[in-house]
Amino acid sequence: MDWFKRKKGISSSEKKVIPDGLWVKCDNCGEIIYRPELQKRMFVCGKCDFHFRVSCKEYIQYYFDPDSFKEFGKSIKPSDPLKFKDSKKYTDRLKAAQKATGLNDAVITGEATIEGQPVVAAVMDFFFIGGSMGSVVGEKISRAIERARQKQIPLIIVSASGGARMMEGALSLMQLAKTSAKLAQLSDEGIPYISILTDPTTGGTTASFAMLGDINIAEPGALIGFAGQRVIKQTIGQDLPEGFQRAEFVLEHGFLDMIVSRQEMRSTLSRILKLLQPSENKKTKKKTSTQSQSRGESNEKPIVKKETNSTSTENKKLPHESKT
Amino acid sequence: MIKKTFRQILDFEKPVVELQKKIIEMEEYARETGVDLSDDINRLKKKVDSLRKEIYSKLTPWDRVRLARHADRPYTLDYIERITSEFIELHGDRYFADDPAMVTGIGQIEEHRVVIIGQQKGRDVKENLHRNFGMSNPEGYRKALRVMKLGAKFNLPILTFIDTPGAYPGIGAEERGQAEAIARNLFEMSHLPVPIIVTIIGEGASGGALGIGVGDVVLMLENCWYSVISPEGCAAILWKDNSKAPVAAEAMKLTAPDLLKLKVIDKIIPEPPGGAHWDYDAAAQNLKKALLKELNQLCKIPPQELVEKRIEKYSQMGVWKEK
């Protein structure tokens, strides 16, 4: 694969929407591709395997069973708590993004199936203000996590995001804590969570739910990291190594389980889900759970009577266990 | 108390510093010559108070940012020294390294045995190189988590002190999973079964701050800032101009009163006149008083309820419309 030969200067954060027109030029190898052909290939270049950035609508189509996605949380809409204005008003930016994408904010949540297996899904959209996470993204993702917990079905989050949204200030930052706290609750009940990191997944999104999957999967070549490349370059005063912060680099350093191409994603997810069936998972979990449950988290599940046996000694054992 | 030496004097501090210098001179003169100048001195002291009140009532958010970064501002270890009767620093994340930008340890405040975690800046160039200007690498967050889990094991409440210009943006930090380290802390801190009290004592920049910032109660000293990015970073991205940082600071609503309104923090801890750097002891006293109050309340709550409330607290964060 040619990922490391990517031309310098194409920082993925500057690549734009897939251009209109019948012929599309590959950002990576320059190949001119017939658009219907590219669509058939899920916007993956046939010559160099470059994965074009696509919107949440495409991801829903590619990753889940046809017509299985049933959206919820559509009524949640952004507001402007800081009355924020830079060169433009935040409310104007929101309106423009809503018009351009047809979305309320940078994530769609719903229930769907993957080769027949039910999942709760949250799919981000980079084309809505850089997929940035503000209050709405945080709330919708939290509700998706809650729904997975209520229904005891696996959760899948597809990230495509530059990070937290600056125009909501500290409230955006708090969404990192909010989504992570909800994931801790989900994890304590033994419900699988698969995180899919697409190009790009950076900043606060990576530093919260995107890195917290029981399984972390990335699309090839996706930019994944915490700090922006320009900031790092300025700080250290030298050029960045080739392939820095690309999925392959992140896999090599141990923060991804695998890199899976767009065409293989649905079948891969299906195979993983079959192996991580919540019910079986929970049986094994319960055996050890006297300790782990007594962390004191809210386990409303009535079946488990952990209060009775979570003595203080057990209580003390728990914080050691790492969950994933 | 009058402060005599300064590493840094901000423009709006100058008139006060001038008057203070005069007071010191007069006091010295009075001592040397035996002349009674107490009336004049008292008059000047009152003038200092009123002048300060006037100046500080007009401070902009950017001025607060500059106070939070003041070179004389007390840091984590200055507070630890003043509020604890015992403190033992612990080192290392047990995976890779010890991160001097993050101080962790066990200690005692009055009757409470506690775990203390705090970001530490340096006072001079040498110290700052050692402390990496208070910018943690992943090891810092992992060390913090290790020691917080120690707290959970021995049922010690956790106090964290936030003071960082951000998590370190370096190649090694990325290689070793800066994002994962922060995410893991958010995840684990949300359900540790002991009280966690977070205090912002200086700068609270983004994920680097939040990485030790999930708790039952979030306190903030008066002259601090806390947001999703630094004002400079925000200005560079949205205004395409670093020098617009003061404007960005205004827009970002990053001061303590703003954050209290947005429910990002729970309480503001007052600082001594002029800011914490004018009187370390008084600042530490205020901090200690606030911490003890929270400790006394939180220690009464059963662990399970504590965690439920904590998760509920964070579930409420944010502002959106729904119809």
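Chain A has two domains: 23-52, 53-276.
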